[in-house]
Design goal:
Layout (H helix, E strand, L loop, with lengths): L2 E7 L4 E7 L5 E8 L2 H12 L6 E6 L7 H9 L3 E4 L2 H8 L10 H15 L4 E2 L5 H34 L1 H6 L6 H8 L3 H7 L1 H10 L5 H13 L8 H35 L1 H7 L6 H11 L8 H8 L4 E5 L2 E5 L6 H17 L1 H12 L4 H22 L12
Parallel strand pairs: 1-4, 4-5
Antiparallel strand pairs: 1-2, 2-3, 5-6, 7-8
């Protein structure tokens, strides 16, 4: 019984689809608008090509532009596989006319590669609602943090040109300095307002240690008697940036609270959260990026996908291992940061880190080694459905 091999090259406004039979003969090859109506029409057309036999479908993108296509395929019960765009680019070199690239040609290539190596491709399954929500929340929070960082760098650069003594003294990890800067930013304005009125204004807005923040502003303003160029304009921009940063922090906090609720209500979230160093945000990002863990055959596969498993490079008499350049950057960051945090939360992690340092590894190498070990631990926890339990020390 034959099989039809369907390849979709995903695009924003339209997709290209190609259907091959077992011999590689093209049965259908055309453009499809990226709307539900057009996608359903082409799927009906594909079904009519044969009433018997199997059918497998490959897409080169998951989520984002492929969300509608993926949902339509899974709703019909199709066997869907993911052939990453990076792999498509590499496989293109194996065909004649490799320098030619088009969406139509890529859809044929995806179908042909599905026909040749479908057993090695990753199946696509429906995403649970809580995982889809976590992915959106985590991605949006990262955007907010990046935008906050960009605005903070700009604010500090302007503040150095406005009042360098004040920029050097402020603790930008707290909201207090931003609240004060949203009110007054130039030394002249701070001196006119005075310590008492500034402190009273900050207290009314719930600023932590308002008296100290006000003292820092007034002391820096009094220490500077020179009016720097364009001070008024720079002060206006600094105040506006401070207000924007406060808004971004509030939005990020809202995202974090929603992520925390989802993690708290999810059994797998509680399991991951029990591992020392895996706070709410890192747990949410881990779940959002991994999705269904069944797609990872082992802890080694998860480590490789995260980019923290050393890879072998051997040629002739030369053989060495190095850090991989590929891997999911978000997962790599999650495992590295959680390993670093675990040094303060777990005696077992500190002991392992100490052994690696004693072997001559650098701090970063030791943390990466710890992160790799923690992948095995986390995998076992999720496999067995058991929370983390610290091993009792031998002294105990």
């Amino acid at each position: 019984m034959g099989c039809h091999w369907v390849g979709f090259d995903v695009g924003k406004a339209c997709h290209w689809v190609c259907v091959l039979d077992d011999a590689g003969k093209v049965l259908l090859h055309r453009r499809v608008d990226a709307t539900q109506e057009q996608i359903e029409d082409v799927l009906d057309e594909i079904e009519q090509l044969a009433t018997t036999g199997n059918r497998r479908v490959a897409i080169d993108l998951r989520g984002d532009l492929a969300t509608m296509l993926e949902a339509c395929l899974l709703a019909r019960g199709e066997s869907v596989y993911h052939l990453p765009g990076v792999a498509v680019n590499r496989y293109r070199d194996a065909y004649a006319g490799a320098e030619q690239k088009s969406d139509a040609r890529d859809s044929w290539l995806i179908a042909d590669q599905l026909r040749l190596r479908w057993r090695s491709l990753r199946p696509v399954t429906a995403t649970e609602e809580y995982l889809a929500e976590l992915k959106v929340l985590a991605s949006y929070r990262r955007d907010l943090v990046q935008e906050q960082t960009r605005k903070l760098l700009r604010l500090r650069a302007l503040l150095v040109e406005l009042c360098p003594g004040l920029e050097a003294e402020l603790n930008f990890k707290r909201n207090g300095p931003f609240v004060a800067l949203s009110r007054v930013a130039s030394p002249a304005a701070v001196r006119r307002l005075g310590h008492k009125r500034l402190a009273r204004w900050l207290k009314a807005r719930g600023v932590y240690r308002a008296e100290k923040v006000a003292s820092t502003f007034v002391s820096a303003a009094k220490a500077q008697s020179v009016e720097l160029p364009a001070s008024e304009l720079k002060a206006q921009i600094v105040s506006e940036l401070a207000r924007q940063i406060l808004e971004l922090r509030e939005q990020a906090l809202t995202m974090e609270q929603r992520m925390a609720r989802i993690v708290a209500e999810t059994p797998v979230g509680q399991l991951v959260l029990s591992l020392p160093g895996m706070g709410t945000i890192l747990t949410a990002e881990f779940l959002a990026e991994t999705g269904d863990l069944s797609r990872f055959a082992s802890a080694d596969h998860l480590a490789a996908a995260s980019g923290i498993a050393p890879v072998l490079r051997a040629s002739g008499s030369t053989s060495f291992r190095r850090r991989p350049k590929r891997g999911n950057k978000v997962l790599k960051r999650v495992f590295y940061l959680s390993a670093y945090c675990s040094l303060y939360a777990s005696a077992e992690s500190r002991a392992y880190y100490g052994r690696k340092r004693a072997e001559g590894k650098t701090h970063r190498q030791a943390v990466v080694a710890l992160a790799r070990r923690r992948v095995n631990v986390l995998w076992a926890m999720l496999r067995d459905g058991q929370p983390y339990r610290e091993k009792p020390s031998k002294a105990a």
